[in-house]
Amino acid sequence: MSVMQRTAKNTALLSSPEVARILGVNVATVKRWTDSGKLDCVKTAGGHRKFSMKQIAAFAKDNQKYAQRLSLVPLEDESNRHLSQIILDADFEALVPIVQEKAIACEQSEVQMILNSAYMVHQDLAILYDDLITPVLHRIGFLWANGEITISEEHLASQVIRDSIVRLQDVVNHAPAQGKSLVLTMSEELHDIAAKMIQHVLEQNGFRVLFSGPQTPVLDTEKIFSSLKPDRVYLSSTYVEDIDGAQSELEELVRLCQVHNAKLYAGGTGLNQLDLTEVSEQIHFLFSFRQTSETCK
Ligand code: B12
Predict the structure, then answer these.
(1) Which end of the chain is less crowded, N or C, counting CB atoms within 10 A of the terminal residue's CB?
(2) Could you identify the atom of ligand 1 that is nearest to the CA of residue 265?
């Protein structure tokens, strides 16, 4: 199985032969480097050397000669060599159009491989979500609004992205669990990708998350508050059609959070449609996934 398939399959740890291929050396060299401490590895109970992408990235940083030929994706052609390099360089500006094209072409395993590799090298979901996934989704929305892709292409592409970020969770290192957060949208909301990303950022930071997903009937959540007792609530709102209905739901959420002593965070463009004057004191507004990550500190 190729490195690409393995990274796309969320196999977080690579074997010595795979690392040898990525670094362009033979297996004996990899073994020698690990024995001398030049290349970090973890050893399995059976004594086999295993490597995370982060360990390989650390090696590449200290050994520029090998960084030049580092290949996270198969080396067969020049475009893959380029892709490998921009992932390592965290060149998100260059990555965005590539991921967007692959999502529209429904190349799920390639999108997955890029996300997994980028995460394994950089280890920060909030950055990936702010600088890669959000711009990709915005571009997909723009192409649809401009009539350059059909609504069904937009559906397929956004589901490729959604699946990829969900599967990425298998390679994410989670801090030990603390606290309990409820992540929700309001009852008319079909957009749940931002909410998913909030869930992931919280989990990476060690929060246990109750994710109620799209179309949560907020007026019906009192029982959830009393039985599951979340200590934080994150509301994501992207699109509001029934303004009065959404306003009532927001006000009810503010009330429930006060009664049940839970902190309320909210973000998303849908909030721009609502009157926040009466409730702004009770809500912590968030504008990025980096900020969401900060709420965990
Ligand atoms: C994918 C998508 C869909 C998918 C959703 C799939 C899913 N499972 O989520 C489907 C196909 C279902 C869909 C349906 C619709 N969609 Co749509 N969709 C999109 C698209 C392409 C991406 C949305 C997304 O996830 N963006 C990524 C998130 C992260 O970005 P964001 O929403 O801008 O959020 C940012 C902030 O708001 C913040 N944020 C959001 N929530 C929160 C919460 C917290 C706590 C924090 C910290 C931050 C935060 O995070 C982002 C940071 O940059 C956008 C295009 C776009 N510009 O985003 C259109 C878009 C949102 N959709 C739009 C529309 C009009 C619709 C439909 C009405 C279409 C229709 N006629 O049926 C329906 C509405 C359904 C409904 N009732 O909700 C419009 C909304 C315009 C508006 N604001 O009024 C957009 C902008 C497209 C456009 N260019 O016109 N859509």
Answers:
(1) C
(2) 45
